[in-house]
Amino acid sequence: MMQNIEGREKLKKLLYFHNPWWIDHRIPDSLKLTYRRPVLKKLLEHFKLDRAILIKGPRRTGKTTLLYQIIDELITKREIPAQNIIYLSCDDPELKLLTNSSSDSRINLSDILDVYEQLREKTIIELKPNEKIYLFLDEIHFWEGWQFEIKKYFDKKYPLKFILSGSSASLIKRGSESLMGRTIEELILPFSFYEFLSCQLKDKRLNKIILNLQKNFILSNLLKGVTGLFSGSTSPIDQLIPYQNKIKILFAEYL
After folding, report:
1. Cβ proximity of 197 and 250 under 8 Å
2. Which residues contact 160 (CB under 8 A, 6 or more apart)?
3. Of 175, 215, 230, 243, which cross-links 147 as Cys (Cβ 3.0–4.6 Å)?
4. Stretch 181-187: mean pLDDT
């Protein structure tokens, strides 16, 4: 339990640093990006369930960006008050020291919520009916004993919605076993070539063409060699001819 004033001040600064939307009521464009992966829609559907959402997968697969995009959707589309959304990156060096310290300066989830309530000047139990606090904990495996922190509040039916991400398969597996029946998991893999093209080119017409081809399993030929793809005269493929040079260059980058 964190007891010293210095530790609480550090936590306040971390909360303000990681949650700029408390001030601006919007997500900085540099964080959310414009391209939306198809899995984003699926993740948003999970919010209907009374479970913690656990997003797992290798590092550098876009998990953090997905978290920011979810936050953006909550604020702009679902009109969730920005102050009801807490994000913390558990691999932040300062937060790692606070969550894994063996001294009195070690913090737990109740410390975070306590400082949050002080900043907001309102306790969580004072929330309106059906109102929740959305707690995003990125790279959760860096927090020693994270699963017990989550379980404590989940079992007490606190008005908290947990959205977690993690990259360490073994640590995430051990943690999720303690939360059996309390989580819904989604595995995030590296971009498919279709996603890579859509993200890089930002061409709505091309995206529509490729999506139609993908549905017909024609896009799979791209993975066998882009050069051969344009040698035929199949009508759907012909639509890609104006883009073939760009696609070849991006395919080389993708590999």
Report:
1. yes
2. 124, 132, 133, 134, 135, 153, 154
3. 175
4. 90
What whole-number distance in Å separates Cα of residue 66 and Cα of residue 37?
8
pTM for the model stands at: 0.81
What local confidence, expressed as pLDDT, does residue 233 receive? 47
Rounded-to-integer distance, Cα 213 and Cα 232, Å: 15
**Bridge partners for 138 per DSSP:** 89
Domains (range + CATH), the chain? 5-187 (3.40.50.300), 193-254 (no CATH)
Tokens 């550090």 correspond to 10
Q: Which one is predicted more confidently, 14 or 218?
A: 14
